[in-house]
Every structure is written in structure tokens, then in C-alpha cells.
Amino acid sequence: MAQEAAVTAGPRSGARRQFLNDPDDVVAEALEGFARAHSDLVRWNRDPSYVIRADHGAHGSKVGLVSGGGSGHEPLHTGFVGRGMLDAAVPGQVFTSPTALQVAAATQAVDTGAGVVQIVKNYTGDVLNFRIAAEIAQDEGARVQQVLVDDDLATDPQLTGNPDGPGRRGTAAVVAVEKVCGAAAEAGADVVEVAALGRRVASSARSLAVALEAPAHPGRDRPSFDLGEHEVEFGVGIHGERGVGRRPFAPAAELLPQLTAPLVESLGLRRGDAALVIVNGLGSTHPLQLSLAYREVTRLLDGLGITTARSLLGSYVTALDMTGCSVTLVRLDDDLLRLWDAPVRTAALTW
Amino acid sequence: MAQEAAVTAGPRSGARRQFLNDPDDVVAEALEGFARAHSDLVRWNRDPSYVIRADHGAHGSKVGLVSGGGSGHEPLHTGFVGRGMLDAAVPGQVFTSPTALQVAAATQAVDTGAGVVQIVKNYTGDVLNFRIAAEIAQDEGARVQQVLVDDDLATDPQLTGNPDGPGRRGTAAVVAVEKVCGAAAEAGADVVEVAALGRRVASSARSLAVALEAPAHPGRDRPSFDLGEHEVEFGVGIHGERGVGRRPFAPAAELLPQLTAPLVESLGLRRGDAALVIVNGLGSTHPLQLSLAYREVTRLLDGLGITTARSLLGSYVTALDMTGCSVTLVRLDDDLLRLWDAPVRTAALTW
What we know:
The structure is a homodimer. The first copy, chain A, is α/β, with parallel strands linked by helices. Chain A has 2 domains: 31-203, Rossmann fold, CATH 3.40.50.10440; 205-331, Dihydroxyacetone kinase, domain 2 (Hypothetical Protein Tm841, Chain: A,domain 3). The first copy, chain A, has 10 helices and 12 strands. Chain A has a 6-stranded mixed sheet, with helices on both faces. In chain A, β5, α4 (124-139) and β6 (144-149) form a beta-alpha-beta unit. In chain A, α6 (173-186) runs antiparallel to α7 (191-203). Mean pLDDT of chain A is 93; it is low at 1-14. Chains A, B: Residues 22-351 form the DhaK domain. Chains A, B: Pfam families: Dak1. Chains A, B: One of its GO terms (biological process) is glycerol catabolic process. Chains A, B: Residues 1-20 are annotated as: Disordered.
């Protein structure tokens, strides 16, 4: 068995070595490790697979909050399970939606009678499976609301000229949606109010990402795309797919404005407006690089008179070991600011 | 200027693209970004360069805590500046010690009259420059104590057979030393007590690391060493240098015990003992991979009857974008456990 795994996991020419045993087991083994490391916060339900707050149900009735999606984006979503954020996260295989039965089981598990809000990133598989799961849970008597997160400006129909496509993908804005909904649920808002707040955050958020290097799937030996020596991949999502186009490699002071300025325009942000700024590493981007990128983003906003009211700097929504970053802007008002600032205690976010 | 930077920063054949402008400015620009993102916690003194708690001096007199070293290891040390941990961090250029004048300035800045503890990783340049800085500060009337962190078993003289060498390097155990000393200082311990606790943590800690891929310096176009297709670099430090030897690539269930078992032996851990377990990403290691590695480490400890009393799982002490991980074990007693559990609020560690 170990021999077989060694052969499977072993790199070939130019390959990336990874910590794994059998590639088919990477998600389950990682979830087991994650739950071991954070047993004060979460427990892992192995089958059907979901991660749930260790103290779920200990604090009476409140709106349950569930999100999920393919694995490979860690710390999303499992890292956001805990007080003030998600009640459960439902991980699929790498870059693969969780099944409707997984999502339904998690939805029912977190329902204390106050209803459940499902936070869904806009991908065809996730949308489909969460919808079926919601119907299953509703058939069993749960009140279920859904919030669709679709912040990726690179896939905006107005820009792609494809009005019949799936629309904007869901990327790093999901962290803001989960944080705000989590705070509202913790404060006793009802299921309709929590969902309305989540939709408000989603509609106030836009993101763009650039990749400097493609990721490699566990057990596969090559990056998912190749870049020329002087190119970057602009408008990438979080699944290792190509972006909307290749652009010339350039200094950070030129690259980051290419990500940030279109967000400002799309949201119609003006002098005096306040924004939450998320500069997010896509997997292999070093903190030095992210801090430097953050400097460029906020200098541009300073110049436009837009206030960086709050920020999040780190690798929160990743695409395996892709090198690059995404920039997310969320228009803030006093309500959202207060919910963003509310206490949170999860593996990836605590204050 | 931008044109010039583009040429400097541009990758050549097989190179890694990075977010940067002029490579000479990467540390300063990243520090500016870091301080912008965490203005509630820290401020950056540009010249001489150090990062200091934003609320320094606001809470009366307490032992000051300073650490530092070359950059490229972020979030270490700047990410650990804040309540319950460091008062200041002194960053050098990438993989280069800060100057004695930088360290002396930070030491004097955090001295409220209760003395200062310097936490120094065991590298020749750091040891030398912190010693000179301590003498400068002492000449100005400060009481300065030093804690040397030397946890890297790969460079243990007993194993390398070089008793006249610099001894064990300081690596991820420095996080535990900073946490415990920070909690003690916050609780009002005096400068001798804080230093003694730090030394107790350092002497109770051992680490080993393995690299799956070498890092590349900012602005350089090649990894710092090459690995064969079926090799890993065993016993690496955190400066992109080669380790103590090449070993065959193997499944995680074989690689992680190679890191963990020697630590158990070196510390003389036995059935019933309690340990802090740090599984630390070296820069580009995805959370999925780290969680999987953590599973292997703690399964081994479970089998030996050693209790994983506390753990830290994530990328805390990095070597630029090296792929790989380190494992650190710290023998815990009730005092250390209590100090580890005390509240902390920094950019990289909060509970």
C-alpha cells in the first residue's frame, strides 16, 4: 500500500512534490488532521462529510449558517467554522462540489429551529447541489434561505459579453459574507434578516485576481497551465483554470492597480466612501509579497480619497498552490462595519 | 523608473514571478504595507527600521520583549507584535541580520524601566548584533536579558559531529518562546523571570524540517538549490540553504515520522508526557498538505502515548516560498501550558 502510494505520489520530471499518501485520500486525511488540530473549535463528521462547531447547540437556538464547496481553497470554508461565523462547512473533493446529501445533512445538523442560511459561491455544481439540499431540508421542515456570492468581476457578463453564461464566479468576498452573516446570526437576527445582510454584502463586493504561476493538483505532476516568461494570467478564478487573458509581467506598482481600479469603477466608489479591502494570497504567495501588494492597493485607494476602513491581508481563499493574489473591495456602511468588527473565533479568523 | 524595475523584476527562463518593484525595496515596501494593514496593532519606525506595538507604553511599566532577524520568514517576527507577545520586532534585509543599531534602538524604545528581554535565534550574525545592541542599551542604563533559541536538531553537534560549530539553529520554537515570554511579561513577571521562562521553553524544544522544493530570493530567478525528481532535502533550515542530506521522496506517512521520531528521542519524551506540537509550513505549503502532515505527526505521538496537549498548525516561520514543513515539539508543564493559553492579540496569532 505504502509502495503503491509512493509511486502514485512521486513526482515526474519538473513535478511538484507534495505531502500525501494516496491522492484519493488527501481531503479526508487533511480533514482528520484539521479536526485534530482544532478540536476545541470543530468536529468532523466523517460520513457524510462536514465540519461542524464543537459547541453546536450549546448556546440555544440561533440561525444556522452553512457554506461549502470544493476542497483546495483552504482555509476556506472549514477555517471559518466557529463562534461568530459558520456553524458548518461542507467540503467536496478537490475543486469538486460537495454532494447534495452532504449539504442536506449539514443543513439539518445546524438547524436549531430558527432556520438555516446557506452561503453558496456561484459555480454551477455548487448552486445545483445546494439547491437540492435546501429542498431536502425544507421537506423535513427546515426554513432555508440562500445567499449567492458572485464577486469575480473577471466573469461579469457585461465584460465578457456573454449574458447567458453562469455570471460572476464567487471568490474571496465569501469571507466577508460569512463574517457578516455569522455576526448577525450570533446577535439573534432571524433567518430572513441574516440572508438579506449576506445578499447586501455580496452585491457590494467585487474581486479580481492575477496568477503568477499555476497550481498543481494533488498527485498530478504538472501545473494546470503554463505561462510564458514575461506573462501573468489575468482574471483567474480559484480552480486553476486560465483567466480571461494573458498580460505582460510588470512591477507591483503597475500590476496591482490593474486589479484594483476596475473594482472601484464597478462598485462606483467615490471620494469619501469606505471600503473593506481584502488582499488575498492564492496559495503560494509569501506574506512579504502580499504586504507589498497591499501597499500598492491602498496607495491607489488613498489617492482616490477612498477610505480603507477595514482590511484583511493573508491567504484565506486559495487555489491549491497557485502563486498570485486577489483583491476584493466591499463597500461598507455602519451596519456592515459593526458586524465585521463583532467578535469571531475560528481557526483562520479570530478577533 | 517603472521601466527599470520591470526589467529587474522580470523573470528569465524557468523563473518565478513575484510581486515587487525594485528588489532592493521589497522589505521596506512590505513593512509599509504590513503596518498599513495592521495599524490597530503596530506602527513601523522607518529609520532605524523596527515594528513596535501601537499601544506601547499605554499600559504602564512591564518587561519589554524584542526579537528580530532576517526578513523572509514572515509572519515571524512582525506578525507576533502585540498584546501578550512581542513589543517590537527588528527586521533585517532578506535572510540578513538586522544591524546592532536597529536592535539597540528597538530595545531602548520598548524599555519602560522594567528591563528588556531579547529573543535571539541562534545564527552568528543575529547573536553578534543582538549582543552589541544589548551592550549599547545597557550602557544607557537598560537591564537587558537574552534568550537564545536553538531548536533545530538537524544541526545538533551530537549529530553533526562538529562540537566547535555554531550549534543548533533557531527555527520555529521561537514562536513558543515569544508566546510564553510575552504572557509572562504581560502578567508582570520581572526581567529575570521572563528570561528564565524563555530559556526553559528553548531548552524543552526541538525541531526538524524537510523541503520538497527550494525557495527563490526576491528578484532572483532560480530556486536556491535543485532537487532530483525523487528526492527531498532533509534537515533544512529557514534560509534556503541545503539541509543535512537528501532522502528519497516518500508518502507523508513515512516522511513525517522521519521528522517526528528524532524529536521525541532527543527530548526524551515518554508515555504520559505532554507536548506542544507545531506543524509549520515553510512558505508555499498548502493548508491541505499541512493538515495532512499534522495528522501523521499526531498519529505517531498517539501511538507512543504522548499527549498533544496544544498545537499550532499553519505557516508561521517561513523560508520565503520554500515548499516543505517543520515539526517542533515542546515539552509542556503546567506553567508553560498556562502561559501558552494566556490571551494574545497579534497579526498572526490571536486568542
